[in-house]
Amino acid sequence: MSGDNVEEEEDKYAYYEYSELEELETPIRYRPDSLSALCRTTRFSEAEIKRIYRGFKAECPTGVVKEDTFKLIYSQFFPQGGDTTGANTGLYAHYVFNTLDQDRSGIVSFEEFVQGLSILSRGSMDEKLQWTFSLYDINGDGYITRDEMTDIVTAIYELMGRHPDSTGPEEEKIKDKVEKIFQKMDVNRDGVVTLDEFLDCCRNDDAISRSMAVFDTSF
Fold first, then answer.
1. Nearest-CA neighbor of 91 among 174, 169, 153?
2. Angle at 171 between CA 167 and CA 176, to 5 degrees
3. Rounded CA gap, 85 and 74, in Å?
4. What is the tens place of the pLDDT at every residue in 151-191?
5. Do 111 and 38 meet the contact criterion of CB atoms below 8 Å apart?
6. 3-state secondary structure 125-186
7. pLDDT tens-digit map of 26-79
């Protein structure tokens, strides 16, 4: 077997058949990038990529993952949410999925998955912060609004097992937290936070940098 394959013990770049429903929504077959290509675009070794791929394929035999499946997988790796049903992790997992799904296809390929994992587990702080900006920039327009920041912070609260309602103290805490952070970041007071404003604030304020996302997630 060639050392350039993602899988060593199984068929070379085996194609994965979809169900009839999936065939209507996604390409009929999926083929991952070569091992050498993935090594170049991530910080993982060949052995690590093979191991990650085997685990990914065990959960996602078709070679790609849709959001519903991703939420269930995510809950298994993020016990802070308090259960493994996805009840607490679902909202945050939705936003993580949205960030990983770079081409907005509705599915996350192994390449997208492993590249995101590489950034969050081994990227520089600036790389992690840029990824986090993308997480908060829900609609992908290059800016973070108060509403977008509120949505993500709310999801993080739920991830940690808290369930803020529209009138409870947790909701007030979220509003206060978002307003304080937003005021610090929105330097020119135009009502949105740009990537440069986001990075400058996080680089100069360790407390904000630590609070913006849960960096120790391993999906």
1. 153
2. 125
3. 10
4. 999 998 887 776 666 566 788 889 999 999 999 999 999 99
5. yes
6. HHHHHHHHHHHHCCCCCCCECHHHHHHHHHHHHHHCCCCCCCCCHHHHHHHHHHHHHHHHHC
7. 444 566 678 889 999 999 999 999 998 888 888 888 889 999 988 877 766 554
